[in-house]
Amino acid sequence: MAAKNCPETPRQKMINMMYIVLTAMLALNVAAQVLEAFRVVDSSLLHTLKSVDVKSRQVYLSFEQAYAENPTKVQEWKQKADKVQSSTKEMFSYILQLKEEIVKYSGATIASEENPINTDDFYLVAENGDTLIVEKQDDLNGPSELMITQKRAEELNKKITEYRNGLVALLDEDDVELKQSILKELETPDPVVKIKDGTDKKTWETQYFLDKPLVAILTLLSKFQIDVKNSEANLINYLYGQIDAGSFKFNKLGARIIANSNIILQGDVYEADVFLAAEDSTQQPQIFINNKEVEVIDGKANYKGNTTQPGVFKWSGLIKYKTPSGVIRNYPFEQEYQVVKPSVTMSATRMNVFYLGIKNPFSIGGGAIPNELMDATMTNGKITKTGDTYIIEPTALDEQGKRTKVTVYAEIGGKRRVVGTSNWRVKQVPPPVAQVAGQSGGDIRKEVLAIQDGVMAVLVDFDFDFKYKVTQFDVQTSGVAGYAIIRKSNSNRFTAEQKDMLSRVKPQSIVYISNIKAIGDDGKTRNLDPIPFKIR
């Protein structure tokens, strides 16, 4: 793994352990020997720092050379390496400036010919090149006041966190080991509180910077600097290795064909991509389909989809493959297929009629095309789709079928295509027939007529959901001396006067129901034919 490109050396591990031991000794006594030990650790850290920095510069030079030879291949990784270099330089400079500030805060002099460095002096080389001689190596107050009271330690914590997150963001999700290495190297956790030590909670800032002598804090900051440089080295070595990580070694070739669509209409063009695929027979990838690992043979997995129901079905998966650098790469994929129910569409060629003022049910059979991929539009009206059915509502009469056209579309190969058109006539709903007791005239028994409630308007042999309601009618019978008696109803029911008339009629007399009007669901009123009855 890339994290092993620049591992922590045994010497560095020893130095880090010495720092921990010396820090513990400070709690007992700030002795001259302890201060001297810190100076030794700091000097070793700075020596290690120079060694790591030299190796990192060599990697950056390698990036420059590789980019000059092949910009397209190297650009992505060089851009990331440039970000690492920039952020590391900024972080390293920040810690160095913090060192200078602490030394000056506790009191320091600049080395010169008049003020030369002695063998026992502890000094710091500033960013501008000045050599600062530390006057108070055992100063406890100054560093605590600057780092804790003035919250510079909190600022340092924030800077380290931002730097750490910035490095991790440059890695892919698969680079787990290197991520964990960087996160651990640059972690700034608060210490765990132990009950036996009391209830006061310490922070990362107080743990490392409260009541610690100046020399210990300078050594600690040197350790942070080398942590930063180590993380930089690990990451840029990894990035440089990724330049050729995609150069897989394959030893088997095979032809592959991918069609443009699973459904092709007559007259359309069938297209397919034909290419040469490479395989590595020395290792098999891991393939997961619908979150379940499947068997892989000769680098391929087989998927069998459900075909018990018609429709469009999607499936997806993930291929895991190890690169030459040892990193596991994920290659997700998605695909869909269509299941078509065998069907045939039948229609009566002379009955292509829509009726004005009603909701006309309409069906579209697509054959090999699933219904969910189809829709329709029309002239002279509107179409509403509900599930697999349609409702046609014409807006004007079109007896000849010259202005009413239905156009059917289908989504095929990612494009909306016209798959059919047809012309339709628009007619008025036929007038209903007025009936009493289910009859429109003829002979009727007096007792049958007497028990009827009124006049009905019936659409004979019309299957659409459309109704008429009688709004008025007249009843006429012959009275004494042959005079005609007429009584009117302003509804569909017989009035009391009309019922009294009907109860007095004689056999062989004529009852004539006329002036019948009915209103339909479309709001239009129609005049209906009269009903003549002969009483038996």
Can you characterise this structure?
Helices cover 33% and strands 27% of the residues. The protein has 536 residues and is an alpha+beta fold. The chain folds into four domains: 2-241, no CATH class; 252-335, no CATH class; 353-427, Sandwich (Immunoglobulin-like), CATH 2.60.40; 433-535, no CATH class. α6 runs antiparallel to α8.
Blueprint of the fold:
Layout: H1 10-26, H2 32-69, H3 71-106, E1 108-110, E2 122-125, E3 131-134, H4 141-149, H5 152-169, H6 176-185, H7 204-209, H8 214-241, E4 252-259, E5 272-279, E6 286-289, E7 292-293, E8 311-322, E9 328-339, E10 353-355, E11 360-362, E12 374-378, E13 381-386, E14 389-394, E15 405-412, E16 415-423, E17 425-427, E18 433-435, E19 442-444, H9 446-450, E20 456-458, E21 468-478, E22 484-489, H10 496-504, E23 510-520, E24 525-528, E25 531-535
Parallel strand pairs: 10-17, 19-25
Antiparallel strand pairs: 1-3, 2-3, 4-5, 6-7, 6-8, 8-9, 11-14, 12-15, 13-14, 15-16, 18-20, 21-22, 21-23, 23-24, 23-25
Helix pairs in contact: 1-2, 1-8, 2-3, 2-8, 3-4, 3-5, 3-8, 6-8
